[in-house]
Amino acid sequence: MQSSRIASVLARASSRAAAVARPAARRNLSSAADAAKGKVKEAAKTAEAAAEAAKGKAKEAAKTVEGAASSAAGAAKSAAGGGGGGGGGGGGVILFGLLAGAGGYYAYTQGMLDSVLGKSDKAAEASSGDAKPAGKAPVPAYAAKVATAVESLIDDDDNRGPLLVRLAWHSSGTYAKGGSPAGGSDGARMRFSPEAKDGANAGLEKARALLEPIKKAHPDISYADLYTYAGAVAIEHMGGPHIPFRFGRSDFRSEAEIASAKAAVASGRLPDAAQGASHIRDVFYRMGFNDQEIVALSGAHTLGRCHTDRSGFEGPWSFAPTTMSNQYFDLLNKEIEKPGYWTVRKWDGPKQYKDPTGELMMLPTDMALIEDDKFRPYVQLYAKDEAAFFKDFAAAFATLLHLGVDEAKLGETA
Ligand code: HEM
């Protein structure tokens, strides 16, 4: 029994290690971090192998792992900050690689090993018998693979990054605090009417179709998690901040199921770009956001473009629409510094604004952020301070993606 618990602990350790490795890979950190990432990946492999061994040769593996753990623990503690781990053979070295190579990840793993090996009575009690230790579900093992698949979709055509961000936002942005139905991303209702037919979602059928092969390859991920996680991955892959993400959403299976659960969200909850500040507040306050969060979230319009065949509007907001940056705020701020920078475009389409080059556009709702006295200071702040924008955007976007999802369903943060 001891050994099967070790096996399951090591298996969980391996999926955790992969989860630790992913954000580092996606952020393209320094070579030192890359080296650490390599070690973590190695550690994950080692843990997987050890788990297999423990499963097969129960008693022997338990002994080896226990002995190795206690002999490696001391060495690993001193090496944990440095992230190095030597080669060689034998169980002790394998575990040393696992613990030392993973750096900060060491503490987590060691805590679990301690609990299994009886080094901490409290922890051992918590995980006694065959019952799983109480707590949230770990980040699923498929998370890293799904992230890689989303990244390669974007690498094949970088216009897909912004489209996936819009999918995540429109999946979540139907939420109404205390509303009936509550709306939000849980259920992945956008696959069915009425959300599928909502004019505000025009074009997002393309995003959903793009993700279909990923769902087929990883059937355990729910559509609701996939539609939101893809947006989080896209932000980071386009150079933006890491978006804390928790898996656990589930899917409705049909329009009839949504109807019988009285969970269908009628059109009209997503914002109308032709309106002004009070409409923006109505929509985002309904979700529970404040003025600062509204401005931060709107910064996603540095990405992507409007399409005449989807919204009727036309053109990109920034000169680098596939790179996450604070350029949107910089461009809005030009109007504050030099009134008349943005002018109403003369054309047959809906009212929108153009910059002096004629290449860029702003929607009436974008301009409302500088017309409104309470929104304007945040535009100025984010124009000057990209780090502040990234930090506030990451927090608000993470909140958005989890709106309406029962806390009890959500697992650990990836
Ligand atoms: C007042 C609030 C908002 C309004 C009125 C609005 C409106 C629009 C419109 C009209 C489009 C063009 C769609 C098309 O023609 O393809 C668009 C695109 C986009 N929106 Fe928003 N949006 C708002 C808030 C947000 C938020 C909160 C986010 C994300 C956090 C977001 C992310 C995007 C992205 C990334 C695109 C580009 C999609 C692409 O390139 O295919 N928007 N938005």
UniProtKB/TrEMBL annotation:
GO terms of molecular function: heme binding; metal ion binding; peroxidase activity
GO biological process, one term: response to reactive oxygen species
Pfam families: peroxidase
Keyword check for Heme: yes
Start and end residues of each Plant heme peroxidase family profile domain: 140-414
Keywords per UniProt: Heme, Iron, Metal-binding, Oxidoreductase, Peroxidase
InterPro entries (UniProt xref): Ccp1-like, Haem_peroxidase, Haem_peroxidase_sf, Peroxidase_I, Peroxidases_AS, Peroxidases_heam-ligand_BS
Family label: Belongs to the peroxidase family.
Protein name (database record): Plant heme peroxidase family profile domain-containing protein
